[in-house]
Amino acid sequence: MSLAQQRLLRLSSIASSSTRTLHFSAVRQWQGFENERHYEPGEDALKRTWHGLTYDFRRWKRRYQEARNDAFKRRHPIAHMKHSVMDHEVFPYRAEVLIIGGGLTGSSTAFWLKERFRDEDFKVVVIECNDKFPTSSSMLSTGSLAQQFSQPEHCEMSQFTAEFLRHAGKHLRVLDSEPPSVDLLPSGFLHLATTEETAAEMREHWKLQLDKGARVSLLTPPQLRERFPYLNVDDVVLASIGLENEGTIDTWQLLGAIREKNLTLGVQYVKAEVEGFEFERSPTSPEVHSLMEDAEEADEDKWKRQRVIGVYARPQMTDASARPIRAHLIVNASGASAGKIARMAGIGTARSGMLAVPVPIEGRKRTRFVVHALRRPRRHAIPR
Fold this sequence. Notes:
Blueprint: H1 3-20, H2 45-68, E1 94-100, H3 104-116, E2 124-128, H4 137-140, E3 144-145, H5 152-166, H6 168-171, E4 185-186, E5 190-193, H7 196-211, E6 216-219, H8 221-227, E7 238-242, E8 247-248, H9 251-265, E9 268-280, H10 295-305, E10 307-315, E11 323-332, H11 338-344
Parallel strand pairs: 1-2, 1-11, 2-9
Antiparallel strand pairs: 3-8, 4-8, 5-7, 6-7, 9-10, 10-11
Helix pairs in contact: 3-9
């Protein structure tokens, strides 16, 4: 082999070895995310317009690339591995529906929205605070399912809920995984009336419940003694007991099943805490405090001119500051904190009008006793 051929072979080997070490991976910093820029009203109008016009194109391009590199393709899965495991929209900037509270109420609202409208561009965001989950209303609830109500809407909603929970494994099943269980334990609730006035109301409610399709039976004191001989019914005038669609469920398992199903439907859960609301005011309206002498009247007029367009949520991260999330619709599903969240939006702070009516929800202490009865009486048959 000549000297020229040896040099050529050496150069080709060096080139091939260097090519094998080349890679195109890069670290994507927080400033590189698509939703990192927040423009205040009136700030840099040209850049703000350009950012909004090109946002849809950048999102379409990213989704197209992710679809091409889908790792779950049947043919050549290794050749279609994802280049990045990070979400480009870790903290959302806007959403069509923003739900405050990730408990049963908030997660169920998100489930039915995405169940009926499965559009990827219809973004549903749920804000939850994991630190408050152990003391939330969903977790502390006994998970009771009842049919005996005095309002027709409550009876209809309860029957729909009972039918949904009976087939929860079908509704909340994810692909080919095992159907989730909510541990539905059928057990009728017994309501007692100790006065004639209460018994008359119970009869009226019983008629309403029958009209709505509920199966409820009225029991007189002799019937109570026959069915439940271990009860003292000396001061009982009338009783009602549910015969169907009543019992208890495991709220932990139900919430976990709904959340897992929501993730597959495209619902985004954000671990954050709402610290305030973002308002939009008319640019032509002057500052009312400079025109009115009464400060309270000026505050009331200020609330009337404002419109809620989003929230300020602080992520559950070290030294994180609150960031805005704008939405077309905001659902307050924060349980016992619903009144506090409503006051942040100005509800209940005015002296007159609709904003003067507060949300009548507040946290109160409640005690429940769990008794472990080893020698409990046997379960008696319920009349049908």
